[in-house]
Amino acid sequence: MDRFSLLLLLLSLLYLSPATSFRFPETRSPATQAQKLIRDLNLFPKHSVNILARHATNASFRATKIVEKPFRFPNFVDADGVSVEDLGHHAGYYQIQHSNDAQMFYFFFESRNNKNDPVVIWLTGGPGCSSELALFYENGPFKFGENLTLVWNEYGWDRASHLLYVDQPTGTGFSYSSDKSDIRHDEQGVSDDLYDFLQAFFAEHPELVDNDFYITGESYAGHYIPAFAARVHQGNKAKEGIHINLKGFAIGNGLTDPAIQYKAYTDYALDMGLIKESQYKRINLIVPVCEAAIKLCGTDGTVSCMAAYLVCNAIFSSIISITGNINYYDIRKECIGSLCYDFSDMETFLNKKSVREALGVGDIEFVSCSTSVYQALLMDWMRNLEVGIPGLLEDGIKLLVYAGEYDLICNWLGNSRWVHSMEWKGKEPFNASSEIPFEVDGREAGLLKNYGPLSFLKVHDAGHMVPMDQPKAALEMLKRWTEGSLKGTASETESLVSSI
Question: GO biological process annotations for this chain's record (predicted)?
């Protein structure tokens, strides 16, 4: 019996067992689920993916390798009297080396603090959502004011680092191709593209080569980040090109080890009072089938991974069918209709002609979240990306896993469990270590566990998007972590801000 047949048998047993008297909830198709993800954020991209006719764009620069330009956003009210050069804001395209015609768009913001600050790249998940979501609503240099104006973000991560935001995978944001075969389907393709981009970026900015480098992001980037970190480390060891001074990687409310994290859904929902004990028991009947499906999927992305996606998401769907209009990114809030957040200002702003001219992207439409990229990665969804992390830790590469306590979809409990179950040389002392308060302004902003290169931080009063909900604590977290003082006493963020 092949893997897929075995999985179908398991499903049939669950459906037909008279002892359970349980029926699977109606599970949305991947296309419908992807569209709901986008609508929940009040986003309405014109296209499902940026696939353009060859040379159809009149962008002011077409990359042959990497091309970037300094720019200033229109309506940036706090930048009056500041030159483009002084701002240190750049937009660029990189022609992806191992592609047919893919162009990767990125933003680069120089640190407002010190030229020797670390270089930090941020990856937004989805999969298929542009990193500009974080740029404008979480940890970027600015945020929206009235009438689509931009003002400085007091707690932007450029207060402590040079910042890169990349529209990836291909087809997301302003990134595009003329060839559908450039759409990536697995972490190998995603991480190779990002590694090639870094090689080109540091060749363009040799003054930053010796700076510490950190990979960060959230949500489905819990897949991207470990794969990307492993790819950079592999390139360094093999001396493939420019040595990238990788010091660590951080995953915020991420999906990394699905087998452990999907099993944690019902426990988290019960602990938080979202479901009753009887409902908990009924939904947990799906868990063994989900675990078996993920095991069949393994780490190589076969057809059984699609079945695992459908089976395991029935656990999440069952909880949501009970909770109704709860915001699954932050269970303290409710969604009004289909609207859980309103990120529409970003989409409107980036599609303005004046903004596109400033960035040099021409007539390219901004794809806030791509349903096509989402579906292309379905075989990747249930893969376990924890497997490559122990080797990184044991080579001294730091990992910070942090999670807002009120997020359901990538909840802190599931993240804590995979971190604690990970087999590495420091597993026992890490698990035996005590939680200590993570304090900001003399108040407890979270609970921290740390041993050696591994840290786990449960962030108080935050949902899925920690830098949006707790911007000051998130900036302090980044600063202390990159300085190696996460569990010690660091200077207050106000001191950092006022000194700039």
Answer: proteolysis
